[in-house]
Amino acid sequence: MRQGQIRKEQIYFDNNVEVGSHTLEIRDREGGNYVVSGWTYLNIVKAEKPGDANGDGQVTVTDAVCIISYILGENPSPFSTSAADVNGDGSVTVTDAVQVIDLIQNP
Q: How do residues 25-63 score in pLDDT, each as one tens digit?
């Protein structure tokens, strides 16, 4: 990677890492020693389960109802648009609510 390029990576941590913003020291291994090659900004977010629109940790019919409520403009709370976008097309539609039902029936 050339200097000045931005690279987005997903890194998985155990549950002991605090959600929030962190500064990360990047080290390269040179002949057995780790050498600091830069610093980067890291934002740790809680991973969401696809279909868990209300964020309760489970995918149930309540999530499908929550998605329909969102589509109808009722502003459900809590609501996660990223978890509700089950098919990952960038928008929350009836298709996502149907896919939640499919996830329930075919876990």
A: 666 666 655 555 555 666 655 667 899 999 888 999 999
CA angle, 82 then 88 then 90, to 5°: 70
Measured distance CA(77)–CA(14) in Å, rounded: 28
Task: Among 2.60.40.10, 1.10.1330.10, 3.60.21.10, 3.40.50.2000, name the CATH number for the domain at 61-105.
Answer: 1.10.1330.10
pTM value is 0.59
Spell out the domain ranges in the chain: 61-105
**What is the rounded distance in angstroms from the CA atom of residue 24 to the CA atom of residue 40?**
5
Q: Residue 25, Cα to own-chain centre: how many angstroms?
A: 23
- Supply 59's token pair: 């995918």
